[in-house]
Amino acid sequence: MAHSRTVSVLCAALLIIPASLPQAQETSSPQTFDVRGTVLNSVTHEPIARVLVTLAGANSSSLLTDNEGRFDFANIPAGRSMLQARRPGFFALGSGRDLDLPIAVEPNVPDHVLQLEPAGVIEGHIILPSSDSGSNIRVQLMRRTIQEGRARWQPFGMKVTNSEGTFRFGNLQPGDYKLNTVASIDPDVASSQAPVRWGFPSASYPQEGGDNAAGFLKISPGQQLNAELSLTRVPFYSVTIPVANPQGYSMQISNENGRLNDVSMFYDSRQQQFRAWLPSGSYTVSIQTYPPTPGFMSQPITVRNTPVRMGSLAVLPIHPIPVTIHKEFASTNSPPQIIEIENGKQVEFSRDVNLMFFSVAGDESDGVNIRHEPGSDDSSWLLENALPGRYWVQAYANQGYVASITSGETDLARDSLVIGPGGAAAPIDIVLRNDMATLSVRVKNGSPQPMESTSPSENFLLQAPVQAPLGYLYLVPQFATSSGVQESIPLQQTVNIPNLQPGTYRVFALDHPVDLEYHNPKALQEYADRGQTVTLEPNGTASIDLDVTSAESTQP
């Protein structure tokens, strides 16, 4: 009887289990929602058609916006995702890149409004004094960039004029630009040994002191500018530079403004000399030799309506500059230095600090190595192959921070380093400390809704929060420093910034990232009334509350 009851109970259980399975499966299936929105032109506020919109997540998909700029992704599983929008001729606001917008797929989310910034265009025409069309003239576009808080002009593109002498640079993000033509000499093979040839020297547009006193073109979103460059045909005079053995040499000729001359040179092995052709003007000839016997020389020359033959040039060896690194650390757990083999012997490179040199006279920058032989005093190093000139020095400490950096009586955090002929300079003294401070920042305003993110993580779905940054944080030291400035730090409601050099900072937050020229006091005036000032003590912690303000200029 008992056995019969057990069988009955088991049968009943088997009948019940299948009935409950569909209910369990129904509970485990994820919720889905639609993701909709519109893409607008940030200048005209009109919809943009045929924008490629991608929803990147567990199941990525893409589509093109319709004629009203609309997009609609149906049945998207709940969770985190990323909206990406791209179309040639448009950028994310203030970024120069495609738009990436982190979103949350959940109920009651309003339609997304994505704004793209239209690119600018520079079109131009080359005018020659004769009936020539101006074709095959190379035109270089230069863009003003901010590198480590300093403005530099960098090449941004090259075009060759068409048969009508016109050129076009498109897809330009907002910024400052200027144009340079590349010098061209008549391609007459028979005149390759002639003392005088004819051609068109390089020209710049706009020129300082002309209609545009600033000497550059400012491109706004969606703006189209037109440029006309008139070239004058002039004689180019032969310049010969005797060099007995050109192996391991490099030679450059720069004009009076420090810009490298773009006329090609060739080496005449029979007469053992370099030959170039230059129009009348003032120039500097520079020759550099490379390890194992590094050397350098520079000499001014003037071309004045006649060929020039330079005398023998003495290339001076470049001597290393002594560097002393003092570590005033609370603990001495330093990482091992880097050892490499050079010219058959071991060389040890400093892992404690790296240096970058920025030319005061031009737009060149170069990293330099600090090294010595393995087993040498850990505080005594040599800076090798530094060319003569004046440089701003940027220091990067891999442990702690650079408390001071001097060359003789010169404070390199405030003044430039001068390297004389043969690499002559006063020894460099660097002090490192590790009593860093921490700053805690809380955003007082700022919308919790997602915003454009210009620097998303590749592992966004694993790491990033649902919201994009509420703003971007800037810490501008109110003291002289050779170290980089903390800038464009993405802000959530609260953020901690550790490992800061003690001192007083101006701290402010902007609604989108900007390239901050923080070494230029005039450029910083625009932010003088933003944020607040805070002083960080050694090993200390400070907290501030900030409002996120507009990054747009408030200057008249």
Computed structural class = mainly beta
Helix percentage range: under 10%
> Using only CA atoms, what is the Rg?
32 Å
Would you identify the regions where 5 or more consecutive residues have pLDDT less than 50?
Answer: 1-26, 447-466
* Architecture (CATH level 2) name of the largest domain: Sandwich
- CATH homology-level superfamily of the largest domain: Transthyretin/hydroxyisourate hydrolase domain
Termini gap? 100 Å
Number of domains: 5
- Give me the number of helical elements: 3
- Total strands: 46
User: Main beta sheet: strand number and arrangement?
Assistant: 8 strands, mixed
CATH topology of the largest domain: Immunoglobulin-like
Mean pLDDT: 84
| Overall geometry | flat
Strand order across the largest sheet: 28-29-32-33-27-38-35-36
Strand fraction equals: over 45%
**Which CATH class of the largest domain?**
Mainly Beta
Structural write-up:
The protein is mostly beta strands. It has an eight-stranded mixed sheet with strand order 28-29-32-33-27-38-35-36, with no helix packed on it. Strands 14, 15, 19, 21, 22 and 25 form a six-stranded mixed sheet that branches. Strands 10, 11, 13, 16 and 17 form a five-stranded antiparallel sheet that branches.
